[in-house]
Every structure is written in structure tokens, then in C-alpha cells.
Amino acid sequence: MTDITSAISAANPRKIHIRRAAIQCTVGPEAGQSWLMEQDVIRIGSAKTGDIVITDPTVSRRHAEIRRGRDGVVLRDLGSTNGTFVGQVRAKEVFLAPDTRFRVGRTELVFTPADEIIDIEPSDADHFERLVGQSVAMREVFGILERVAPTDLTVLITGETGTGKELACRAVHNRSRRHSGPFVVFDCGAAAENLIESELFGHQRGAFTGAVDARPGVFEMAQHGTIFIDEIGELPLELQPKLLRVLEQREIRRIGSTSTKPIDVRVVAATNRNLRDEVDAGRFREDLYYRLAVVEMSMPPLRNRLDDLSLLAHHLLKRSPHNGGVCSISSAVIQSFEGHDWPGNVRELNNVIERALPFTDGDTVTVDCLPSSLVCTSHAPASEVRPVTPQSTPPEPAVPFKHAKEQLIDDFERRYLVQLLESHDGNVSKAARAAGMDRKTITRLMKKHGITR
User: Are 234 and 287 in contact (CB under 8 A)?
Assistant: First the structure.
């Protein structure tokens, strides 16, 4: 059983308090066996799908559960045949104190808290998977990821749009024991509201109009791997109890089905909203928030890590799929970057570099390759500053008309998409509506031009 009392305490931002529970069997067929649990709900019974499987014939299939809540740890009987006892008292629901002994059927178990306080020190590395940074803020993020990724803890990653939340989620998966399993992404903000439940949990054939075939949801597709739920703050309030049940019970029920399926997935969620404020406003369930925020970490905005600008800009330049030999960025460009507020964060920086590449003559990005809004004339040498042409340089007349036209159209499409997505914080659905285009068309063009959100 795991919980975080405060993900990263404001008073002590370098400690994470993890609460685990140890359950030991002292009487019964499993006497001498113990379990160290890392989930909020522990199911006890004879069913093979339980967390603690007891072979005692007096134990029901779903006998009892131990559940961690905000007020403490509760032992609850699940309607068992032979009851759950603390001492001589048959209990329906009771709070567990440390080292409490209790019986399920004729089997005796002992509950013991196994808390751990982890000191988080800034990592010595300047990268973690595809995340890059040498600032203290980013190295603290790396320190958290180094400790948390190898576990199965549920992680909630917060931060402004464009700060790298999805990269952090992928890094958690890649450094986990589940790295060979699937990594499945579900974006609550991009899915049609009436289809979210089906996308998450799947449906049976005929469950609703249009359900011509049975289809698994993303939880099933992520079996033995990791599911990344992006923009979790956009999840409709009426669906939040269903997601909470999946997180607690670790089983799903497809729409139209009467049976459940056990799932073995790790959940990593992300949001650019302040979920505590959403809870206070009644738009997000408090119990779901605490189930998701077992470990909560925030990605720092780019304006708070300007020390990373040069390293990050060169990293993005190197990995650009459209780089035809540009290998450096002038100091004047970096100075201009340092004078910008970066409301779009790393995504905006990446887009700026991508847009600069077609205008770069030689192997160095200079100030004249930047959008006029980013040119900081107080830092840039006069020789580097000149108006930025809004269109590509016209092709040479020797180029066949058809090819020249295709080049200009491709250049227009790419520029238009980059600006469109940037103005809508990378949200494809919003961008499609604003442009009067189909979402699939936007997605196809993004793939064609190698544009990522």
C-alpha cells in the first residue's frame, strides 16, 4: 500500500514520504509468508486474482480488503461467509492501528506500516532519457524520476503546456520494470466526450449504436505495461468514479459486458491544470486526485530554467528531422532566447528552431533566421539583424514548375501547422476546429511533416 502525504512538500521539497504496508501471516496455510504492498487497496481472499491469496478453505473468494484513505487505513469485510475478526469482535469496517492482528476465516494476519522517507537530491546527470537540462530545477526532476521510475507507483505529472510532461511519462515507462510492455497514450482533451468511456474501457458488440464489433479499451491494450492518461483534468466528472474504480479494483468492465477483466497496468497521468483547485471547485473528485497523486511532480516552465537554454536548443537542433547540416547556434540567438518569456515552453523553443532551419545559410543559426518577435536588438550585432521574410526564398527558375510548386506548398503546410498548433497549445482538436479542418487531416499532415505536439 502506497500513499504520498505531500508529493513534494513546500517546506522540504527534496523529500518524498511513501507509505507502504507489510502484511504477515502468522496462523493458517500461509503462515510465515509476508507481503509488502504498494497499492491503495489490498484485496484478500482465495481468488487467484486477489493481492493476498489465502488457500484456507474458510476464506471466501473476495473476503476482505485493506483500503488507505485520508483519515487512515481501514479493514473492510466484503460480505464473507465466515467473517473478519479483530480480537473476538466480528468487524464490518474498522481502522487499523500499527501491528494490528486480525483474522479472515481461520487465518491470522498482522498489519504493519512500512513507511519510507526518500531524500531527493539533484541528479548529477544533465539528462534523463530524452529530457535535457543542467539547471537545479531539472536535475531535481531527474532525481525524482531516478527513484520513482523503477517502482510501480502511480505518478501525476503537472506543468504548463509544452514543458515535457509526455517525455517525462515515457521516461518513467522506459526506466521501469515494464519497459518491454506496451506504452499506451490516451488524451482526455482530444477524445470526443461521448466516446471517452468506450476508449478507456472498451465495449462489446452492440453495446451502443455504431458498436458493430467488440473492441478493447486502452487499459486492456496497456496490459503488463504503462498507460499514460494525458490531460486528466479534462475527464468528465461523470466518468471519474469509473476511473477511480479501475484504479482501486484493478479490473475493467467493457460497456455492454456483465463480466470484469483483471488488469495489470501502471498509470501515469499528466495535466496542465491545478487539480487541487479543480477539486475545490467541484470539477474533479478528491478521492480520484489522491489515487492519481501517489507521486506528484511538477515540470518547471522554461522561463524558470534559462540556464538550460543553450544546452536544450542545441539538443533540439541536433535531433531535428529537418536539419540538413546545421550544427550550431550563435551566441546572439541564445541571448535573444534569454530575453523571451517562452509561454509555450520547450515546445515553443522547438518550433522556433524548426522554423529557423529553412532560413539558415551555412552551419549556424543566426538572429536573422528568427521570427521578428524573438529578435532582441539590444543583444544582437547589427550585422546579424535584418527583417525576417515571411515566405520561403522563391525556388530557382531552373527547378521544374511542378517541383517548385510542391516545395512551396510543403513549406506553407509546415509553417501553417506549426503556428496553428502553437497558438492552440498543441491541442489537435482545438486547432482543427479553428482551421475548419478535420482532425484526421491535421494528424496526417503532422505525420507528413514530422511535427510533434
Answer: no
- pLDDT tens across 5-60, in order? 334 433 344 567 677 789 999 999 999 999 988 777 889 999 988 889 999 999 99
Query: Rounded distance, CA 347 to CA 370, Å?
Result: 16
Q: 416 Cβ partners below 8 Å, 6+ apart?
A: none
Report the alpha-carbon distance of residue 453 to residue 417 in Å, rounded. 11
DSSP assignment of 87-118 equals: TTEE-SEEEPPTTEEEEETTEEEEEEE--EEE
Residue 256 exposed, middle or buried by CB count within 10 Å (0-12, 13-18, 19+): middle
Q: Model pTM?
A: 0.70
CA distance linking residue 347 with residue 453, whole number of Å: 7
Q: What are phi and psi of 36, to 5 degrees?
A: -105, 110
- Is residue 236 within 8 A of residue 192, CB to CB? The reply is no
C-alpha span between 79 and 225 (Å, rounded):
33
- Amino acid (one-letter) located at 47: A
